[in-house]
Predict the 3D structure of the following.
Amino acid sequence: MQTMLNVSRRRFLQSGAAAAGGLVLGFHLPAGGRLAGAAEGEAAINAWLRIAPDDTVTVTVAHSEMGQGVYTSLPMLVAEELEVDWTKVRAEFAPADQVYRNRLFGIQATGGSTSIRSSFDHLRQAGATAREMLRRAAAEGWGVPVEACRAQAGRVVHEASGRAAGYGALAGAAAKLEPPAEVPLKKPGDWSLIGTAAARLDVPAKVDGSAGFGIDVKLPGMLTATVLASPVFGGRLKSVDETPALAVKGVRAVVPLERAVAVVAEGYWPALKGLEALAPVWDEGPHAAMSDVTIRAELSAALKQDGAVAHNEGDATAALAGADRRLEAAYEVPYLAHATMEPMNATARVTDTGVEIWAPTQGQGPIQHAVAGLLGLAPEQVKVHTTFLGGGFGRRFETDFVVQAVLVSKAVGAPVKLVWSREEDMRQDFYRPAAMARLRAGLNAAGEPVAWHVRLAAPSIMSRALPDYVKDGIDPSSVEGAADSPYAIANQRIEYAMRHFGVPVGFWRSVGNSQNAFFVESFLDELAHAAGRDPFAFRRALLADKPRHRRVLETAAEAAGWGRTAPEGRFRGIALHESFGSIAAEVAEISVAKGRGIKLHRMTCAIDCGRTINPDTVVAQMESGIVYGLTAALFGRITIAAGRVQEGNFDSYPMLDLAQMPEVEVRIVESGAALGGVGEPGTPPAAPALTNALFAATGMRIRSLPLSRHGFSAV
Amino acid sequence: MAVNLKVNGTERRIEVGPETPLLWVLRDTLGLTGTKFGCGIAACGACTVHVDGAAIRSCVTPVEAVAGAEVTTIEGLSSDRGHPVQKAWIAEQVPQCGYCQSGMIMAAAALLSDTPRPSDAQIDEAMTNICRCGTYVRVRRAIHRAARA
């Protein structure tokens, strides 16, 4: 994903759009010239903020809020430059519009831990521009020089005359002014809001049930639908007898789709009962015999051949042959579902004149394109309202559930909220790819690694999602976190064997890093033990020319008490991983009870994301990423048999719960380097930190996940 | 068939199939969407509400089973986010995506009403709700904070 971002950034810059100052700042208001939620008397200063007569500032949030905190951290960027009290700031989601595109992607979408990075400059500029316009409006009103007017805490003050006015009183006049071409931005040392733990703007609505998620949308005349797609991937609906569903009270219609059947009713429950009454006949297509056995066999065979070269440095083959000691190991991870707490859903209103969509989505731009293609419209004719997302993790980057809602609404001629059951959500995901790796390394007589050869075999996400990014057999998202190792090993070769199966694959929190960190950091641990070295010291020695990585590793180790005796019966494991521009290290401290019950005592994490916008959000995202990674490492496994997913709900795809949750301590390392992301980097090190601790505790080297397959549980 | 319920202090007469889960009566019939659908099998707790003061999972509770009972949802916990659990949740900045939080809060409120000063072990036992964002460490802290309030 990192590579993809770099590529798309390059393309974006080449397109010249970045040079058009007005556009970048977003001074063109979206169609209609009025922000969606603007009330009478409110003045929109630019596309990013409007000010009410009571001095309340409403900031438009172009990214999706799925828990990662952008509904708060993005307005902080505006408010910092605007000079306004945080208590006066509100947020609201942007309508779909090119003004609100992700500057790293070129279209409006949230992913790749890019929200802050892609917004940092233009949102601060939007706030600073508005501040200058407010100052100028005050100065002109008072007939005094603008230089003598100071903006402070939501007011403009002219000290010489003692005059002052609130932003609310000035906003109307300010909005009529021509925006200045250039505005000075504060120096980091002058920030008073950025870097503070400002209270989340979405928390009040999330403790009283009023936060509006996609599943909560209600429109006049709206019907509710639920859907069953072919349980076998790639299958098609052959026929369905609609009668049994129509006999269920409250059911209004059965809508056959190409690969699925939907039941439309007065509410979710009758829709579900209607769907359960159906016995659709499927053409199961080419994947009906697919299973974990066939998939593993093909991945395993791929590891025996040369793959496409993703990274080559020195001569790994020769260095391996000449090494004093050689190690080799095979690693493996399964498919994983996202399992967002809010099942997939979307609401669509298709009329003769257009289409309107309400959705918990990470991909407003992709929705516009997908739906426009479906209905023969221009993308900007597809109106998208973004709700809060009950989790995203990459799943809501896809548009499949929105397309279904549009088709069903069109078929029944009414607004339709389409809600998936949990089972549908788990069985019709775009999964984290199953992957296998063969790793080989050579140590010299001093126990230092001199050769490193990784061969990866996995399905490719980009081949489907963004095929332009696949070059010479390399999907950058499949090799990220393996092809770009920070460790100084003179001879390295990383190869990738792309294999396609019928199981849809997609972006899952941290994408390729999620499996590659497990492969790399586990095998490195094997090398350290083989060399008789402490795993922390072994890594540290390989980071001599990587001061940021080294500091993160040292910070985590120090905070975890690495090198000091752990409490009786407890053992530690360490892992380091860079992803999405940030570096994270984690130390797991565990004990193992009889019967293979793992007690997770403590996770210690250090993160260098360059600069911190909101430290509490960074901490929360590390806590979150760690739980996501630990859950997958312990329990996560989607199994395929007869072309379909076997798991269906949380009873068969379990989640870490509160009783099993370790303490988490997070240390933020402020390096001042370029901004990195925080939504994903906490996830990759969690699995190897845990399995490395398990090795320390038991001597068992876990080379395939999840741990439940090896008889371990969490206690 | 009609079922009589008292929801957040208001008497309601609901015309609905008696086997309809309370969750869908609350969400689709009464428009109380703060209570969430997560799994439909009582595994995740997103649908937790109080029935006569006890936390139950409304996605598997037929509405007829609670006829005549007092149902409290997140909307009825307080009128101003003033319940000690809500205040603690704000102070600890617990929610991330927020989808599971109504259920978490209702489970925590029921726990504290039965056990005003719960131990960690009692919290472990009572709080079996699933959160995919991993807010667990803050949920625990917030329950302890609410207990001290």
Observations:
- DSSP finds 20 helices and 28 strands in chain A.
- The radius of gyration of chain A is 27 Å.
